[in-house]
Specification:
307 residues, alpha/beta, 2,3-Dihydroxybiphenyl 1,2-Dioxygenase, domain 1, nine-stranded mixed β-sheet, 6 helices, 19% helix, globular, Catechol_2-3_dOase, EC 1.13.11.2, VOC_core, repeat
Length: 307
């Protein structure tokens, strides 16, 4: 049942050198640099996103992800979910408005997989970059690199993905769109959606908590994904795998690494999900085809390199 969570709103990623990271996220992926704050964090967004930012880069000693935030309908929804998160047993912290520039009060909470999440109701609305809201043109001039349109989802590794499914489904209203089951019927991967997309967040069962696999950004077409591959080669960026197609979600994709070792994905297309859809199931013995539909072979680096 939908509970008032609308969409992924932002992700804060740790990088070793913020200026080097900007060559990746701004100049290569094509996100728009919005501003920097007193802490030295850099705020970025995809050009179609109406809120002020969706990606925050924080310079740190270790790469990885600090948290992912989801936008809810209004402050009444925020208060209701705040109480339900406490009742569910999460460790909950209130983050005051303005701690992230332009963002209202946030409710941060932990999860069984060891990741930190937050919900919020208010963020400064700056509109799509370079495109008016009345009689808009098709796209803005001046976009860089891959011309990513928005931050779409992230994939996270940690233990007890069942407990995190319970949290996201029962409290936040996400639905299980797709899953991978082992021969005993245990779920080892899950793809959760809060709207019609194939997934807004995904989890893989893993013994070490709080690990970050990738942040993903949308491109318009398969041709754009192929062009992204050209740019990766032109810039001598570390490639993980692709271009290829997933069996899971059927998105067309390519994976590569930022200078700090965090993995990025750009992709297009993919399945959709309505509330009356049953979860799509893949069997673990078909995991190679599920992840890399064309060559049907697992890439050890894809499965084991995490931040």
């Amino acid at each position: 049942m939908r509970k008032g969570v609308m969409r992924p709103g932002h992700i804060q990623i740790r990088v070793l050198d913020v200026e080097e990271a900007l060559k990746h996220y701004r100049d290569l992926i094509g996100l728009i640099e919005v501003e920097r704050d007193a802490q030295g964090r850099v705020y970025l967004k995809g050009w179609t996103e109406v809120d002020k930012f969706s990606v925050v880069l924080r310079e740190a000693d270790e790469p990885g992800m600090d948290f992912v935030g989801y936008k809810v309908l209004d402050n009444q929804t925020l208060e209701k979910l705040h109480g339900e998160l406490i009742e569910h047993g999460c460790n909950v912290e209130e983050i005051p408005a303005g701690e992230l520039n332009g963002c209202g009060r946030r409710i941060r909470f932990d999860s069984p997989t060891g990741h930190m999440f937050e919900i919020y109701a208010e963020k400064e609305r700056t509109g799509k970059w370079g495109v008016e809201n009345v009689n808009p043109e098709a796209w803005p001039r001046g976009l860089k690199g891959m011309k990513a349109t928005r931050f779409d989802h992230c994939l996270l590794y940690g233990p007890n993905i069942k407990g995190t499914l319970d949290l996201f489904r029962d409290v936040l209203g996400f639905e299980l769109a797709e899953q991978v089951l082992d021969p005993e019927g245990t779920r080892i991967a899950q793809f959760l959606t809060v709207g019609m997309k194939a997934h807004d967040v995904a989890f893989i069962e893993h013994p070490e908590p709080g690990k970050f696999h990738h942040a993903s950004f949308i491109l318009d077409t398969w041709e754009d994904v192929l062009r992204a591959a050209d740019l990766i080669s032109m810039e001598d960026v570390s490639l993980d795998i692709g271009p290829t197609r997933h069996g899971l979600t059927h998105g067309k994709t390519i994976y590569f690494f930022d200078p700090s070792g965090n993995r990025s994905e750009v992709f297009c297309d993919g399945d959709y999900h309505y509330p009356d859809h049953e979860p799509v199931t893949w069997q673990a013995e078909q995991l190679g085809k599920a992840i890399f539909y064309h060559d049907r072979v697992l890439n050890d680096r894809f499965l084991t390199v995490l931040t």
